[in-house]
Structure to design on (371 residues):
């Protein structure tokens, strides 16, 4: 589809069901033109009339809004970590209907590509053919799908999208993981309808995504981890680049667990670190509190520079914002003007399923927008 037909389908996908009158207003079409354009989409099964619309006074009967048929297409999204591939099968609206996790056999790009295709086949088994596969990777990914630098896979200049395309006839796309999850929030999540928001993720790394004027801010530097070395505490611990108290040194799950493990003299997992802090362990409380304060300062910096309508907080380490809520608010207020309105903070699901769903959304966008 192209032109008005494409715009109609996109409006219904993102905001449907929509009445014909609302669709005509949005796309600036006459009632006759709208009927002519939507008829083939209804006949093909892409669109469907749904009940429940308000009464139309002109004809004296309820209107029948138009909606997309989400199951008309299916997509696979795969999130790659240092040791696993987590895949999901979604509808055209990114609703997760199946998930599966596999350990990586190695970091060999060829073996990982084999696993991704095998995972996609397993997820789609017994269902109609899938329309697209999206894969998200932590690191610097070019628009061509080449992984310039894969932080957690030890990849340099890997033509990963090409490796996948050689193994399947399905359209494939490879993206930076934070870019992918930002788009998922933007199109199908808490960011829908918000013209300007930013996403901060804390976990194995520190990520940042930005939507302005209802569009993701694209840059060739996405995935370089630039925000990860933003200074937050001059007296904080050192990162691997020698920075005192940068975001990576203060907020990653590894930074927090290593500090608390050293303080307690035994290995401690991230969830246990947060539980210890909640239960009043003095060392855990001190370290988690300092991390919460640093997170507040990072949110303040993002808010001061981009003035978002909302700040999304995500990643597997996001529960830090709840456990260290008081310290976070102190750090946030410290670096904001007293008259500034606090930005709404919206916590995202910390599970890796959301990262895999983000990869599926990149595949959905590639299909819908014709990229």
């Amino acid at each position: 589809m192209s032109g008005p037909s494409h715009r109609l389908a996109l409006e219904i996908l993102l905001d449907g069901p929509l009445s014909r009158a609302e669709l005509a207003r949005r796309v600036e079409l006459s009632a006759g033109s709208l009927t002519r354009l939507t008829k083939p989409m209804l006949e093909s099964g892409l669109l469907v009339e749904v009940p429940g619309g308000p009464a139309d006074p002109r004809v004296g009967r309820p209107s029948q809004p138009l909606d997309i048929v989400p199951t008309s297409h299916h997509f696979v999204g795969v999130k790659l970590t240092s040791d696993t591939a987590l895949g999901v099968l979604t509808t055209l609206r990114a609703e997760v209907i199946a998930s599966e996790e596999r350990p990586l056999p190695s970091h060999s790009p060829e073996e990982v590509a084999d696993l991704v295709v095998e995972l996609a086949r397993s997820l789609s088994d017994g269902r109609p053919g899938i329309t697209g596969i999206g894969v998200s990777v932590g690191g610097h990914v070019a628009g061509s799908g080449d992984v310039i630098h894969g932080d957690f896979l030890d990849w340099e200049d890997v033509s990963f999208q090409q490796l996948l395309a050689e193994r399947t006839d399905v359209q494939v796309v490879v993206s930076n993981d934070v870019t992918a999850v930002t788009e998922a929030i933007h199109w199908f999540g808490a960011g829908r309808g918000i013209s300007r928001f930013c996403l901060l993720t804390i976990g194995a790394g520190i990520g940042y995504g930005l939507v302005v004027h209802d569009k993701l801010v694209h840059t060739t530097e996405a995935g370089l981890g630039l925000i990860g070395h933003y200074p937050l505490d001059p007296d904080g611990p050192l990162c691997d680049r020698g920075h005192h108290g940068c975001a990576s040194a203060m907020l990653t799950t590894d930074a927090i667990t290593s500090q608390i493990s050293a303080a307690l003299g035994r290995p401690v997992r991230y969830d246990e670190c947060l539980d210890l802090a909640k239960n009043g362990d003095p060392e855990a409380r001190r370290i988690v509190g300092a991390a919460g304060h640093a997170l507040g300062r990072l949110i303040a910096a993002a808010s001061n520079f981009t003035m978002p309508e909302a700040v999304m907080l995500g990643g597997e380490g996001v529960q830090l914002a709840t456990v260290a809520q008081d310290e976070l608010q102190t750090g946030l207020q410290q670096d904001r003007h007293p008259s500034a309105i606090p930005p709404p903070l919206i916590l995202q699901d910390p599970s890796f399923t959301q990262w895999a769903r983000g990869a599926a959304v990149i595949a959905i966008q590639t299909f819908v927008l014709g990229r």
